[in-house]
Request: fold
Amino acid sequence: MLLEMAAEGDPDRVVLGSHDGGITAADLLERSRRAAIYFEKSGAEVVGYFGLNEDTLPVALFGAALAGIPFAPLNYRAPDEQLRGILGRVAGGLLIADDQEVARLGAIGATNVVTKDQFAAAIAEPVTGEHPFVDPEEIAVLLFTSGTTSEPKAAILRHRHLVSYIISSVEFLGCEPTEAQLICVPSYHIAGIAAVLSSLYAGRRIMYLPAFEATAWVQLAAAEHITHAMVVPTMLGRILGAIEETGTDLPSLRHLSYGGGRMPLELVERTLTDMPHIDLVNAYGLTETSSTIAMLTPDEHREAFASADPAIRARLGSVGRPLPSLEVEVRDIDEATLPPGEKGEIWVRGEQVAGEYVGNNVLTDDGWFRTRDAGWFDVHGFLYVDGRLDDVIVRGAENISPGEIEEVLMAHTAVAEAAVIGIPDAEWGEAVAAVVVLHPGGDASEADLQVWVKERLRSTKMPGVVAFRDELPYSPTGKLLRRVLRDELSDGSGSSASA
Amino acid sequence: MAIQLKAGARLRSAVDACEVVVVKAPAEPVDLRCGGHPFLPVDAEPGSESIVAGFEGGTQLGKRYSNDDLGLELLCTKAGEGAISVGETILAVKGAKPLPASD
Reply:
């Protein structure tokens, strides 16, 4: 429906690829119709996509949508063992894959695999007729959530969730024809799907960078006059570095949104200082909520950055305010709504909120979704997110939130990155452990950092172990992989190695 | 003629090219019209009537039309020349302030 509207509203607008020679809205609709018929004829119950972002992706996404078949972008970075489990969940499906992945998929038992070239050949012939709008109750997208703490779950997003999100948050053809969005987040992440839908509905041309690399990002942004982009925290620092190193000017770039994990405050401030003309948006959302549920707008970034009032300045570390189409509450363990300033679990309700996994709808009877994220509101309605509840360390009877300790560690001038996790402990159940990356030339010992935390928080929050690493493990979408660190440190390799 | 609406249902105008999708449906049936004539199911043949005077003004593709008192919201998926009304009351374009791009 969204694509049909875009093709009706401005059929000749280039919506995908380079401004010259790219794919128009009418052309994308035509290709998607052919794909829909191909998928229908194949008898596939689900259309899987296994590979890098390319122009094939929107064609397959909209083709599946027109045909009323769920679309499942799969994590091509998943190890074989995990992938086998995921493939089991999309059995009976057709899988579109990058050439170099076909052998690997075959080896772990995938059937019905076609390459992108084979897919393109299959939809080369014109078709006639229109598809009726699909039932809004049908499944649009299946996304395997990143599962940083457990096995991936298959989250269901129905057409009505995604359509609600788009029409309530995006102005139809509301952008100028010169606007272009660079997408570098993988398609198996909700942001990769939402970016396609939002951009198309807004009339913003989509340009893909198949695999993120900072210099390539900067070069493509310059060459394609990119105006908009979404990045995850790990990307932004590298992009700023690459802009500096290459001396590239990006006069067209005017809007950067970020999300997907905690963004170091230092990076936000550096971006606001180095590129004051760029609009920054901090977006907070989850797979289960069809992407964004709260955002810190460009004006709110600038106001906070310019403010001498610590309470307003602190908003740079918030995720802004909930979208007007949603309700967001912070509740305690007894599910009672908490007043501003008190920390609890973030709950959300609204038309875009799916809260459903295959075989398991987790919405409450009155439609609320528990995010499992900890957070609080300030008195002006700004929402602060403080990590996953599952990451809370239970030391003795005390609940310790890693975020608070990580912030204190990162405030130390020698520390570039910090992760705090709970590791098994015979006496306390869990003990606090920290993994730290020092700045180049930064100097701090385990004892220095222990004292630093103890002086600023209290002794129970002092890490019993501080390990030093050259880098922290992140998922491709910018999420810190605490499980990896927990496994490493629980293996007894937690003694403080030198930097 | 009041009809019971359902979210996700599609309707077409009897007098022009306008088509809408029901985004929010009121619990009670409503007398929903386009160009002064009742909306039809999307696959129905349009009639030969013309727009009733006072119900011009047109619809715009991609705009949402709503009546908050009724809990009614429609999304225009094809534009036309007639205005959308409930009974004699013409629906306003939902004037939400556009949000900055977030993904």
Notes: The CA atoms of residues 214 and 239 of chain A lie 5 Å apart. Chain A has 16 helices and 26 strands. Chain A touches chain B at residues 1, 4-5, 8-9, 133, 135-137, 160, 164, 167-174, 181, 191, 194-195, 198, 201-202, 204, 228, 230, 255, 257, 259, 279, 281, 283, 285, 291-292, 295, 297-298, 323-324 (CB under 8 Å).
